[in-house]
## 1
Amino acid sequence: MPRQSHKKSRKGCQQCKDRKVKCDETRPKCTNCTKRSVECLFPPPGATTRSRSRVYQAQQRSLQGSREEISTTTHMSPIEDMSPAMGVAEMVLLHQYSVSTCFTISRNLALRTVWQIHIPHFGFSSPIVLRGIMALSALHLVQLKPEYQDSYLDQAELHHETALQMAAAALQKIDKENAPSIYVFSLLACIFSCAKPRKPEDFWKVIDQIIEWLNLIRGTVSILLLNEHDGFIKNGPLSPLFILGHRKSLEWEARIQPSFNAIENLGKSFATIHEMGSRNCETADIFMWLVRAPDHYLHFFHQRKPEALVIFGFFCMIIRELEWTWWMQGASSHLLQGIYYHLGEEHRCWLHWPMQQLGLVSSFP
């Protein structure tokens, strides 16, 4: 007796269509998707098969971490072509930024206004900044909603990698129009690098992570050092980011002095925190040492010279002051342990004091 086939329907959800299984068309979420705990997306009423497919691609592109961009019928430049399609997933990320993430970057009210109001405005005109915002929000949701961490991590990587490509292209022709947006993205990229998930025992990648930090932070400074664009960045809505506040009392030089060595600058960072108190420290106070570190120190760090690694180990004490925020929690201990593993026995004793301060002495021989 021939097998009785079910009546085909074109109204099922896209997930069932992709799996080639029958959809019971229960809304808002069919039985199959409910059992598999996956997103259930139905095409809009009256949509053609082709248009349904395009809508689904737009909705799922971020959720699945797809690297394919949806084609359009209008002519667009390569940079504009990489602008994110505003589907539900993207709206969730922008909402997350506006109600939560923007308040976790600084404790200073004036700077919070910059991150809450002005940074999104740059995103309205710059797809680079917009993707940077969504990438950071997605990482924040990785921490807040661990049950969906794979999905949000895919979204974070997609938006961040695409923004990096766009920023690299924009840097080829930086001008007064795009300089502020590129600078804003460089700040978002630094925070993104700090916020990336850290595996507790993955210490062998720590040095590479630190090098990534150094390159990003020094790249941010290099944008500011382009004198012809400097005024457009510092004198606009981003100006509160450059107000030194308590740091002025130490009367540091405005320019990086080649004669400064890494230890002297590290001492200045400790002095800043001691004078202001931990709760008054801003992100710029913490990372100022990385900005001022001499080039020869960075060269030695890239070569993994023990002396350079040990100096950074002491900097982990300063990093601890940023752990009030989600994107730096646990960073000081993680980085210090990674540095410890990269040192030989004859140099590990140099880290005794910072490890003692972070409560790590009993964890190591």
Note: Residues 46-81, 244-260 have pLDDT under 50 and may be disordered.
## 2
Amino acid sequence: MSLGFKLIYHKEAIEFLSKQEKYVQDRIALGLKGLLQIPPRGDIKTMKGYNGLYRLRIGTFRILFEINHVEKLIYILTMDFPGGVYK
């Protein structure tokens, strides 16, 4: 069941995703669709010290995102490997 939310990708996230192989893009896309479920599916954690920032882990990839409940938008801010995403 979908919450009616929409995914919005930041330029940095799009650039990272476009550099990945097709099977990696598909795996990440499937993981991101889990954010639209009730309840959201995936390895999701809140980021300590950052109000409203969340982390989704998909295999070795980390995706940082914010949720705007009023506008029903999920902003995909960045995605990278663990060493690069937290910089």
Note: The chain has a mean pLDDT of 89.
## 3
Amino acid sequence: MTKILVDVDDEALEAAQRIFGTKTKKDTINLALTEAVTRVTRLKALEEGVRLFSGEDFDSLMDKRNYRSVPEGHDPIPRKGVEGRQIA
């Protein structure tokens, strides 16, 4: 762990301590840094997911036959007959 000397906004630090329920300034700052990194990482992953699965790309994932191999002669999604009976 690195020791540093920084000026910290006292009101922001107190608010963070209340939110996180931490007892020490050190714990508050370390948790705040960890939470900031986690939040930004999740946000970037979400943005990437939205970009990747926008439009038709996502629709193709709804049918497992598009990304899972199907043994020959086997239909993983059985078709139904007129009266709801399975067709052989």
Note: The chain has a mean pLDDT of 84.
## 4
Amino acid sequence: MNSKLVMVSGPQEGRSFELGTETFRIGRQDGNDLQILEALVSRRHCELRLVEGRHEVHDLESSHGTFVNTLPVARRRLAHGDFLQVGSVGMLFLADAPEENLPRGREDSLIARTTLERRPEEIDRLLRGGGSAASVPELRLLLSIAAALEMHGEAAPLAQRLLELLFDALPAERGAALLTSPAGTDPVIVARSGEGKTEPSRTVITRVTEEGSALLWDEVAQDPALAGAESLRGVSVRSLLALPMSGRRQLHGLLYFESDTVGAFTEPHLELAAAAAGIAGLALDTARAFEGLRAENRRLSAAGEEHGLVGQSPALERLLSFISRVAPVASTVLLRGESGTGKELAARALHRGSPRADGPFVAVNCACLSETLLESELFGHERGAFTGAVATKIGKLEAAHGGTLFLDEVGEIPPSIQVKLLRVLQEREFERLGARKPTKVDVRLITATNR
């Protein structure tokens, strides 16, 4: 491995350092392989490490950041020709081994990458220097984004608004915003912009989420890095831009833009969008924290006196323990007990302690209705579905969308309606009486019987 680090600015300009297999340390104090005596350089600033045959730069939580191709990084795999900046000193990374070169369809097909970590001072540094200065329209856009993000306290609306603002500023034809769950699951699409249905490449999503990189391709069809992407075969996409929305400790999602024009996106577009995504990542930290607090508040409320179950006995304590365990999950629940023992109170407590607590709670007593009326009450009907159906009516299932449907005396439901309820549980869809197409519904079912 004969990679080199060539000094292109600073007191040691023109000098080169051989990078072997040992860690190469850069900082202000004695003992570093490269000592830079500047106030902007931390005592232990960054390191170059050989990882799986490729050199990576690792920032050591420096005060003013480590930059690669003008972008702040926490960790970055280096490619031949990458420009590193520590303080005011610039360095060029030259990889001697062929495998050090990133696969490219054109010389500039992969322009730059950012990293997962985005601190406020790094965003400010990106906007103020280390490349072309931000124009007045760009600064106005970032100000609009910051103001818009302040207005949204939930993750999905926040991501959607950011997508709309950036889509108007970029030469993109389609775009999408994807979010992970608070637990860090794979990102899912929460918003789209532009004409047609955007289906982000899983290859690109994996690269962004695993490497924490803001990626730009200006010739998708000729880039070997995307040669295996099934989702990009046979489509008109020529340019791609994908950016992580990263908080202080986790990746919240990503923004994805595509164009049918070669070279539609440029490095200034990447820098602007990366800064906006960095701001969004910090805003998503706050939004996710508030969402967690709201969920915890609902859980504590369900465990307290608001459950409406008053008493003190071993049996009641077992019931409350059951409610606290079952309420947060999405499973269907069957409550059994004699009439008048408070099954609906238990159902309401389950609803209040669930993630659906802000949604509706709809109760139906199945024993009070005939088969025909019960079917209409549950599923609704279209205008003209039967004699007397003078208008479309939504059923209790639709009324409970996003919340909980409580079916009391479920044992009285006729078998023909039970079959339709089974489809609701399996497919999350049903048909109104007289309808020609199914209706999707998101509802949790809690049932009760005295049998």
Note: The chain has a mean pLDDT of 79.
